[in-house]
Amino acid sequence: METIGHLLLQFLMGFVNLILLPWHIFQWANMETLKAQMSAFVLAGMSQEFFYVVLAFVVLLIGFGIWKRPFLRATVLGLEAFNGRVGRFAAWFALIMALQQVLIIAMGQIFRGNELIFAPFGSVLFEEELQWLSGQLKFYNAILIAMASAYTFIEGGHVRVDLVYAAISKRAQHWVDLLGTVFFLIPSTVLLWWFAWPLAMNSIFAQRPMNIWSEKASWRNVKLEVSGTAEFSWVWSFKILILVFAALMFVVGVSFLLRNIWALLEPEDDVRPHRLFDAQSADAPVPTH
Asked: Are 128 and 256 contained in the same domain?
């Protein structure tokens, strides 16, 4: 009972801290030193207070959406549109990756060079070794995975192993999606953020090394971890992308949860699990068959 009471108190404090968030930000901005500000920042990213504030915000979205159905629909479509724009932006890196790979092959196999130089009128604007550029392709691929996975989920593009899902009723499918989101999708994104946050902070800042149980921080300055090899060496950027992936998948988890609540509350709207098949979405492609 004591544990349940503690969790309930933390949950209620999440609403209080959400209301007081502007005041907390003001207090943080007025700390005496940059070191104090950054130490508080690196601890806040995986703190219980941050988790319960986000949870309180999601609960308010759900509650207000149930009360005001137009708000629920607008929130679902708005969150999906946001992830859609991010995903479509990330998709351009597939083209960049392909073009850069062609340049690398052309320079290495045709011209037998080991670096790519762009120097119009004798002014060197770009000069990198092919090994570094080859490693950079991994970074483009990481951007695609981190920033377009949520968009792919929205459009129903991920591989799905279906044993019983297609055989059950449409309402039961929405219940399966809702419970799966609450107990699997959203918790997994929270855990991924919790584990990735100290890795990212240790990678971009010089400070007392953090772990998932850290309660103290001593920030010093920016470090930006690199690998020290001839390949693309921005190790810190890959770790930041893990946080980006976790955040975008959390957003898509919330939008998917709200979408299924919308479908259960408004069965006459014929809301489908994914936007690709949703005739109610203005952004949904029109079937051609």
From this structure: yes
